[in-house]
Amino acid sequence: MDAITGAWQWLGTAANWAGEKGVWHRLGEHLWLSGLCLLLSCLIALPLALWLGHIGKGGTLAVNVSNVGRAVPTFAVLVLLTLSPLGKHGDWPTIIALVLFAVPPLLTNVYLGIREADRDVVEAARGMGMSGPQLLRRVEIPLAYPLIMTGLRSAAVQVVATATLAALAGGGGLGRIITAGFGNYDTAQVVAGAVLVALLALVVEGALVLLDRACDPMRGRRRGPRKRGQGPVEEAPPAPTRDVSTGQPT
């Protein structure tokens, strides 16, 4: 309880938010690093997953190979890259480690989304004369959109949370607040830094959920033709019939 109270007091101190070592500056570094790593991951994983899912060949091998990366601790990769010649080139060890960490969920979800698209719809579109690129853009990607966004959200939250390790390699970001707290034996500062990272991850998740709902190309179709707030459509009662021999209604 004392650590939580101390963290609250640390966050409420204006001096801790200003300057190059303040929260705002560290937050900007964290967002820049996370955004760059996520962008590079998308540039690598999305075209490959879309192409493999569309042609239906080699995808299983690519997904299995990428998933092997999940078994390797990101911290271990970061340490090895930092000790290599790349360690002399600023944030590149951190960027490479985070990209390797973010590619598997993107590649897996996008590939599965394309492959699990309704085959009847895909074949019907192909029968209408759509070319391969048209089929991918107008049919397969809209059908795979939920899984694509799930992979993007998963990768984004993982990158935001794991970018904290950049501080251990001399990089910037909110992790520097935590490492500084450890260095000063300031438990309140350590807890405050951890809270900031957790809040940022939640904000990123919420923003991507809103983006998902706003950009869904099949939002209206998935919701159905019935407008929100309307009750179920009632069927009209069957028309009365008459007995042919007596003329009386049945």
Automatic annotation (TrEMBL):
Superkingdom, natural source: Bacteria
Pfam entry (one): BPD_transp_1
Membrane topology: Multi-pass membrane protein
Keywords: Membrane, Transmembrane, Transmembrane helix, Transport
Biased composition (Basic residues): 220-229
Disordered: region residues: 219-250
Compartments reported by the entry: Cell membrane; Membrane
Main location: membrane
Sequence intervals crossing the membrane: 31-53, 65-86, 92-112, 155-178, 190-211
Gene3D superfamilies referenced in this protein's UniProt entry, alphabetically: MetI-like (1.10.3720.10)
Ranges of residues in domain ABC transmembrane type-1: 27-208
Family statement drawn from the similarity comment of this UniProt entry: Belongs to the binding-protein-dependent transport system permease family.
The protein's name in its UniProt record: ABC transporter permease subunit
